[in-house]
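User: Show me sequence and structure for the first protein, then do the same for the second.

Assistant: Starting with the first protein.
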Amino acid sequence: MNFKVFKVMDIVGARPQFIKLAPILRAIEQHNKLCVKEQICEILLHTGQHYDYLMSQVFFDELGIKAPDYHLGVGSGTHGYQTGEMLKRIEEVLLNEKPDLVIVYGDTNSTLAGALASAKLRIPVAHVEAGLRCFNKRVPEEINRILTDHVSDLLFCPTETAVKNLKLEGITEGVHFVGDVMYDAVLMYLEVAEDKSDVLSRFGLEPKGYALATIHRAENTDNLERLSAILEGLERIAEEGMKVVFPIHPRTKKQITAIGWQMKGVRVFEPVSYLDMLVLEKNAHLILTDSGGVQKEAFFFRVPCITLREQTEWIETVETGWNTLVGCDPDRIVEAATRAKPGRDSAFPYGDGKAGLKIVEIVCAFLRSAKEQQ
């Protein structure tokens, strides 16, 4: 029997990446059951970029993700410190494990560190959620995306727009439109969420009776003027009679505490789990966010979204009228909330919910070809 084993390492570190990872792990499991002669040996490395329970471990528990094989415990810090520590520690693991391929996800410092460490060791890199661009290089995530794409061998795009973005930068080899793994995750976990989550009753919320707010991006949290303006906008929405609920990111909580801001009329609570978040999103009247993932999930659930940024990498949500960009101006935030309405029904740009399966199939074909050429 010509038996093949491919060693693949997944590198994650932040809350959105755990969600993106889940469909890939399920697809690997399905592949290994069906392909007796060809197995994927999966190694999971967690950088520790997100580290407290509500930002990390709860996702592993809820989504049934196995415990990491390596947990680097890097924690928080400046971009340079965090990325540098990850590079150093990831390299040590790569030298020990010698994987055939490394998969990185999204646009965090963990993404960039994993891609750079692998590329410098001449280990092929696959980037899940490749080709996204907001065209603002002041945004740290934009730098991470661009650099990761330019060192990747396989680029898995969630939209056709992402494919076009890469082509404009001269990247055409190894590019695949597969759809969005976060859509896979919603299809996988929504029924479980609705069955298990009691988040609405726990917080006394009625379906379509509240606005859901999230703020976490460095461009907003590290700029206290922007952060204060956004908080003012949320308070003014609440003053006008709309209930606003705000599960607060640890970074945002730290900054709000530092400036001594007292939230008025807005219900603030600790971060919620993925299953709770799905239920909150689906049942919201309106969502206000700076999160890329939450913008998409609002679109999946057909909930009007207001994005607290000047640009978005998920341009399809804007083009179809489901998402409005307002930046941090309180007047624009309030006006958009007042005028929020459903967008247009249109072609669905994020695939068919089978992105994970397609990614694993392409990865196997790539590694099969590489083995044959050795």
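Switching to the second protein now.
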Amino acid sequence: MTTDAGHAVLSDKMNSISLSPGPVNIGKDGTITQKGSAVGRLGVFSVADPKLLMKRGANLMSYPDLERNLTASTAELKNEALEQANCEPTTELAALMDTQRQLEANANMIRYQDQMLNRLVNDVAKIG
């Protein structure tokens, strides 16, 4: 069971995994051991068409016709690892600020050019 919402964790055989209170170890292949004995193996699956995955809220996903469309994945699991974002926020913020400055500079150049054309059309044309 997950600790946040009480949803079942599925085994590689699509059955619910039950654990007793206490420390749990999960191996790279998904094998769950508790108190020195194997309890089960996490179900890690791949789907044929990821576009068909549907969000069901929180971290839950569903896929049509699960029995026929899931295949065992060769993914490697990492015990006690924290998933991180694919980008560094400070680097992305600095890049965003640089882009904003470039946009402002371009907008200023367009404004100056517009003023020059306006002066050319209105002031220089009146002289002749």
